[in-house]
Amino acid sequence: MRSRRNTKCVGNDRARKVRRSAFAVATAFSLYVSVAPIALATGEDPNPTQSESDTRAAQASGGVKLHILVIEANRRDGAFDARIRGNVRKHLEEVGYTGARVLDELSTPAVSEGARVQLEILSRGNPNSAQHLGVTALGISTSEVRLRVEIPELRFDTSTRQKPDTTVALAFKTPDGSKLYLAVTPTL
User: Fold this and answer.
1) Which of 114, 126, 156, 170 is deepest in the core (most CB within 10 A)?
2) 58 or 69: which carries more pLDDT confidence?
C-alpha cells in the first residue's frame, strides 16, 4: 500500500484536495455562510437617488459613524441583551429566536469615504483562529451610504446600499443551531 504522502496530486485529485482543505478551513471557523443581507429599515426605497451636492455635504460633515454588533441568536435562551433593540430585536423575535447576546461590538468615530474598519471575531470552537470582519465606506451622501462588508477567511464579500440610521443584518448559521448576525448601522 502506497503512502499518500508520496503521491502527487494531478488534475481532479488536486482540485478535490483543494476543495476538502477549503471545507476543513470553513468548518474550523464556527461559521457557515448561508444567508444574505436582511434589510431592517423603515419601508422606504432601498435605492434612493444620489446627487453630487448630497455627497459633498456628507463629506464636509466628516464622514459616517459605524456601529457594528456581532450577535448570537438562539432558540433556547429567553433573554435578549439590552443592546439589541429596535428592528433587529423585532426581526429576531419574528423568525422564532427567544434569546440573543452580543458577542462583540464596535462603534467608530467618523469614517471618510474609502476608509476601512476591521473587527476581529474569535471562534468559539478554536480560540486560536479568528475571522476578520471588514467594513469599507464606498460612498457617503446625506441620502445613502454604500458599504462593503467582507470576511476574507470565509470568502464572504457583499456590498450594501442603505439610508443613514438604518441597520443591515447579515446572518450566518453555526454548527450548534444558533445563528450569528452581523448588524451594521451607519450614522451621519
Assistant:
1) 170
2) 69
Whether residue 17 is predicted with pLDDT greater than 60 in this model: the reply is: no
Q: Is 51 in contact with 141 (CB distance < 8 Å)?
A: yes
Residue 142 C-alpha cell reads as 446625506
Supply the DSSP string of 19-81, one letter for each residue. Answer: HHHHHHHHHHSS-EEEEEEEEES-SS-SS----HHHHHHHHHTT-BEEEEEEEEEESS---B-
Is 78 within 8 Å of 102 (Cβ atoms)?
A: no
Say whether pLDDT at 131 is over 70: yes
Q: pTM for this structure?
A: 0.64
> Distance between CA atoms of 105 and 125, rounded to whole angstroms?
20
Domain ranges in the chain are 34-187
The set of residues, in sequence order, having a beta carbon less than 8 Å from that of 29 and lying 6+ positions away, is 123, 125, 126, 129, 131, 153, 154
